Amino acid sequence: MLSVAFLLPLLLIAIGQFLPISDAIDCFSCASPALHNQWEATGLPAIPPPDRFAFHACDGTGTDYKPCADVCMEMLVAAGNEYGVVRGCMSDFYHGQTTSTNTDKCYFGEYPHNVTIYDPTNGAKTYSQLYVGVRYCSTVNGACNNKFVPKKEAAEGSGAFADTFCRQTQQLPTTACLSCSRHDSAGDCNSNWKETCQGQWCTKTTGYVNGRWMESRGCAPFNPSGNSMCVKTESEHTFDLFDNHPLQMPYSLERCYCQGAHCNGAIHSIGANFVPIWWPFFVLIGIFGAKFSM
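Request: output the structure for the sequence above.
Response:
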């Protein structure tokens, strides 16, 4: 008869094959203060709870890291007139979902957006086009998601974007996406629209903003989740729309990402190019190079 002493280690090994690996790595978990009231600019569906996340300088030099069972992420975005950073564990942003990105990757690109960056040496500089991007990493040797810094070097495509790590990542090919917008009766945005933009991801947003129907199709240089997805969301938040004058309005939107020429032309249900992510209302105000003006 096999002894308990012999069977116990085998049992523990077997159980371990079916249990998720928990808290295997650490991730810096924070965001620039400007993003607190403009979370839509991140494209992430959820703000992690306060015990796992903080809004402050988020320069990646402190001890603001938390254990993570998924992959670490950092992202440079523009919100209003500011350049900001988000760092965290992917599973904190996408509750109940695991990402398909389980290797170190970096995706970035330029898009038109007016941002002023203050440099202690050269003073303020306003950019009409700057680099944004997302980076995924995982390591057991301390938090790894602290390479992106929202300063002029990154805005100009140097800094972390010029590192070997980012340059060696195979950037996604660009494709032609439908580009249009409609807000109530203003504008037109149907699946037969002929105007296009070039991007790594095609996007489609439909729903209601402040009780009014909107529809927008365009393109983006990266996708925070790395997956072709659609997610619906309802909330009310502060949007910095008109010359830095905040406006509070409710919204109920579905945002989709897909890859492939004109794949964002579907009118209602998600086609074969989509798999059931949420992208925010900020795309409606001109982010990522598509025509999103109302």
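Residues 25-168 form one domain.
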